[in-house]
Amino acid sequence: MRDDPPLLAVKGLVKRFGGLLATDHVNVEVGSAETHALIGPNGAGKTTLIAQVQGELRPDEGAILFNGRDIARDAGWRRAVGGLARSFQITSIFPQFTALANVVLAVQAQAGHSFHFGRRAMREAALVEPARGALAAIGLAHRAQSRAAALSHGEQRQLELAMALAMRPKLLLLDEPMAGMGRQDTARMTEILRNLKSQYSILLVEHDMSAVEALADRVSVLVSGRIVATGSFEQVRADAQVRSAYLGERHR
Amino acid sequence: MKPPSPRLLLTCGLAVLMALAPLAVRFTGNEYPLIVLTRIVILAIAAVGLDLILGYGGMVSLGHAAFVGIGAYAIGIMTAEGITSGFVQWPLAILAGAVAALTIGALSLRTRGVYFILVTLAFAQMVYFVSVGLDAYGGEDGLVIPTRSQFGALLNLSNRTTFYFLCLLVLFATIALVAHLARTRFGLVLRGAASNERRMRALGFPVYRYRLAAFVIAGALAGLAGILLANHSEFVSPSIMNWGRSADLIIMVVLGGMGSAIGPLLGALIFMLTEELLSHVTTYWQLVFGPLILLVVRFATSGVAGFFPERTDEG
Amino acid sequence: MSALLEVEGVHASYGASQVLFGVSFEMNEGEVVTLLGRNGMGKTTTVRTIMGLMRCSAGQIAWRGEPIASRPSHVVARLGLGYVPEGRRIFPNLSVRENLLVAGRTRKGGSAWSLERVVEFFPRLGERLENGGAQLSGGEQQMLAIGRALMTNPSLLILDEATEGLAPVIREEIWRRLQQLKHTGLSILVIDKELEELCGLADRHYVIEKGEVVWSGENHALQSDPNVHAMYLAV
């Protein structure tokens, strides 16, 4: 697995906001079928990094190689069509549409252009069947007809994941999928992700260490915009710089 | 077969009522109500186009009346230049509306939020002042249109009843078109982008081009309304497209129900009939109307159409 | 006599996203207590809920026996809780002097905090009184934020990540100042990561994970229990 070129290779990424160096020459790689967790204290720049990989933010320097091609200047929507799916830290769905319609839109985005004026989208089997499939894979099939706004918070997070999966991505960018969930929902979501991880490459930002330990093949630690350690969960846990970032200067 | 939704019943009911209106006029012997109704129908057509971009698409365009004016002036100018055939005039006038919308939209849609509102207003004001400066075509005083669009033996637009039914047909065709579009892939993109643009981009939609297409469609429909307006009044002037008229259109859409194809007609009926009736009672009728709009916006955000729910597959 | 601050079974959410699932702890007059735990677990949310900046959807918060949950934040602040928020949040367009004076509140009895006394406490601020807030370094901004809270003459000082992102020298100075404040008898609630320093300053510790208190104990317990570090604090 390590001999294949990585699916995603971020090289020397730099992002400045005025005087603040939010992303400091970051290198990180995700191989095929690898789950790579990105952890670090608040304000470390994890979401900023995800936003640059996805395309919401343009980096000032550096390259983002996806399948060998530098996508750093591509528009965000193009990267999505090219196989990059992102879930957001704060749930971002279409509240007035049904759960099914939400996922249909995700399928539709990957089904060519949408300058179709003839048929009703929700009657097109080519859109609806894959959408139902994605909902079923996440365990939300029974809520397909519910308005997204009526779903519980945990179900909305699952819906967001279903939408990402419906994009048939090569790489999943998951930004704190467990955010706002209590213990039970977190365990459920961890289980769902555990069952999926062999089919996708995943770059996962999370604070919940039990989830990271259960899911990550590799872990990178981001502190003040810099990657200070990369390795297995155990290696990273024992690393001196990581310990001081989490426990204070004296705990190296 | 499911029973028809309240929204569908309302739409059909209105269609029937309005088709019967000329009969009532025949009874009273007074043509004035028919003239008022025709004007309502014409403005409703422009409002339906606006509803596509505003109600479904979430784009607050404060310059929609400009496209009505462009369609109307196209008729006025062509007639003044001797082109009176409707077969030539109408396609060209609609095209004028569409091209204007393409130009203004291409520039405006690069902006967001408050800036978009102001940019559309600015462009509309530009069009308004251009028409004021058109001395060759009447400038501020406007231009009389001596003959209505000619369709030979096919259609005589000078007949008030014929003209009314033509406008009514165009209106309900437009309503059916927009209601259908909203459920297509195209419509779903527009509505999704209005709801959560960030999410749409993350899914892989190039939102700009779909919004521009919708803007052009709305501009073409407004141009069509302008054509009918020019024929109806037999007169065009810049006042058709001062920004107050754009605001009127927005009021009709909001009052009637944003994101509903029948809403604009309801809004046009309520707005213009109220204006008609109240203005006979007092010149301060707007003092009554203003608070009414506030109440609707505050308590009935889906407008009047919101009281007639419809069933859609997407929620 | 009731505790100074009692937090019982508090729940709070950001919209639909629930963050606190029943947080309970208490503080007595004159104590220094810490809230520990990794990021995203609910420490800042707890403190914001106490200050009334977030709605407490369930549970009780009592200040000197009086319920204050869901009271407006300006009311809570006037009761004597001084808040130094994460990220400092000083007013960049006001001078140091103005930042301090805006917060000032005269207090009956006791040795009150005044502009003079704050400047004496943080000499660096005295050198920069007329400078704009945005011109200060991170450390100076932090001192200004603490000084501003002191100007309200609080009975409880709440500090959220007061040393984050600061150079070691500045951090040490701030920890020294906090020790001095402790000796004036001020009650302090601290959120921070510097375990060593916290053990030197605080009396008791609470660990928050996933919106609940999962561990509590005194200094020696925290220092001697290896599991606490591994499970809740480190990676």
Key features of this structure:
heterotrimer; A: 252 residues; alpha/beta; Rossmann fold; 2 domains; 4-stranded antiparallel β-sheet; C: 235 residues; 6-stranded mixed β-sheet; 10 helices; 36% helix; 26% strand
Description:
Chain A has 9 helices and 10 strands. In chain A, α3 (99-109) crosses α4 (125-138), α3 packs parallel to α5 and α4 crosses α5. Chain A has helices at 46-54, 76-81, 99-109, 125-138, 153-166, 183-196, 209-215, 233-238, 240-247; strands at residues 8-17, 20-30, 35-39, 61-66, 69-70, 84-87, 171-175, 201-205, 218-223, 226-231. Chain A folds into 2 domains: 1-83 and 169-252, P-loop containing nucleotide triphosphate hydrolases (Rossmann fold); 94-168, no CATH class. By secondary structure, chain A is of the alpha/beta class. The two termini of chain A are 33 Å apart. In chain A, the strands form 2 sheets. Chain A has a 6-stranded mixed beta sheet, with helices on both faces. A 4-stranded antiparallel beta sheet of chain A has the order 2-1-4-5, covered by helices on one side. The longest helix of chain A is centred in the middle third of the chain and has 14 residues, at 125-138. Helix content of chain A is 35%, strand content 24%. With 315 residues, chain B is mainly α. Chain B has a domain at 38-242. Chain B is built from 12 helices and 2 strands. A two-stranded antiparallel ribbon of chain B has the order 1-2. The mean pLDDT of chain B is 93. With 235 residues, chain C is of the alpha/beta class. Chain C has a domain at 1-80 and 157-166 and 188-235: Rossmann fold (3-Layer(aba) Sandwich). Chain C has helices at residues 43-50, 73-78, 96-103, 115-121, 123-127, 138-151, 168-183, 195-201, 219-224, 226-233; strands at residues 5-14, 17-27, 32-36, 58-63, 66-67, 81-84, 156-160, 187-191, 204-209, 212-218. In chain C, β4 and β5 (66-67) form a beta hairpin. The mean pLDDT of chain C is 90. The chains are: A alpha/beta (252), B mainly alpha (315), C alpha/beta (235). Chains A and B meet through α2 and α3 of A and α7, α8 and α9 of B.
